Amino acid sequence: MTDVHEAAVRAHHEEWARVVAAxxxxxxxxxxxxxxxxxxxxxxxxxxxxDGVPPNPGxxxxxxxxxKAIDRIRRESKRDDKQxxxxxxxxxxxxxPSGAIDDDRLRLIFTCCHPALALETRVALTLRMxxxxxxxxxxxxxxxRETAMEQRITRAKAKIKxxxxxxxxxxxxxLPIRVSGVLAALFLxxxxxxxxxxxxxxxxxxxxxxxxxxxxxxxxxxxxxxGEVTGLLALMLLTEARRTARISAGGELVALGEQNRGAWDRxxxxxxxxxxxxxxxxxxxxxxYQILAAINAVHTDARDVRDTDWSQVVALYDxxxxxxxxxxxxxxxxxxxxxxxxxxxxxAAVDRLDGKLAGYHAYHATRADLLRRLGRGEPARSAYDKxxxxxxxxxxxxxxxxxxxxxx
Length: 408
Known about the structure:
Residues 18-78 form the RNA polymerase sigma-70 region domain. Residues 109-160 form the RNA polymerase sigma factor 70 region 4 type domain. It holds the Pfam family Sigma70_r4_2. Residues 74-101 are annotated as: Disordered. The chain has helices at residues 2-27, 30-51, 57-76, 81-89, 104-112, 119-129, 135-142, 146-162, 175-194, 206-222, 227-240, 266-282, 288-301, 310-323, 327-341, 343-351, 354-357, 361-373, 377-390, 394-405. By secondary structure, it is mostly helical. Among the domains are: 4-89, no CATH class; 326-408, Tetratricopeptide repeat domain (Serine Threonine Protein Phosphatase 5, Tetratricopeptide repeat). Helix 18 runs antiparallel to helix 19. It is globular and about 65 Å long. The two termini are 42 Å apart.
């Protein structure tokens, strides 16, 4: 029974985007696609324990979801029976490709990231439809209430339907202006896989990081000269290279400075470094993702944490702050400043962010570590408590709990 449950969870992780994208291609309706996919997975949870896991779970789920979608269409509307029936009865072959790459999930992400939607809405909708994240997980990523996020996603799907936004990869001339929202969505999908926040999920979701990398590679094939696409791919590769070293055998997060660097994937690091060098050679001013990739290149270039060029990391964050003066960037810069100027200077910078990041667990975790290094035990304990309360990742909670308990 446990094996069947694990198979169902794995199928949801691996097949959600594929099933939803196939339904969107066939029916052209995000609501129908999402609901039918969810119903198919619910049927799997009910039937697989008795019938066994099918040889091809993805095909089984897609077929079941198609039937559910057809049932819903028949229930909901009698007005366009002939048109609906023709749509339901046609074969499952895809329409003529409308772009250089024929990929259902790529079409879906461009639909979700249409410029008719606000940028944050595009990202949220993509996280739901392509990433398969729950509304609660998305709300946590945006630091907003779950009800507000539910309303945002519902309105976005309604707007796509009302505006008849096409389900396709944009024409070549439209790609550059469409890509920023897509990259933001892919970055957040990757981040959810890198440090999963969902209750009961694995602390690292390789299915999400792998899918984000796959889609970013496809977009780079469409826009090979776009610096930010290349930068995001490099950033993902250099981060993914450390995946196997990030969780201990006991299920606890392993901080960067404590990781076994021999376990890092050197091939991914080599590819990521090559992409960073490629962008530097152009002489063009780097964007946000290129700078983040360069920061990760500095970290992965050091064979030992003591070899890290922290001054270079701070200098790169100084560049990033100028184009992205967000409090999270300021927080990450402060972590690097602690290694150059000491934890007291870094703590002063972090404390200035209190009103902006009070609901963000990493803010309190950073404060806790700096206070611990300064020998201020009780304030550090209080900060650890706040971080633990806000953190959703099980491995991170285990790490923070151990650090707090070491205070005595």
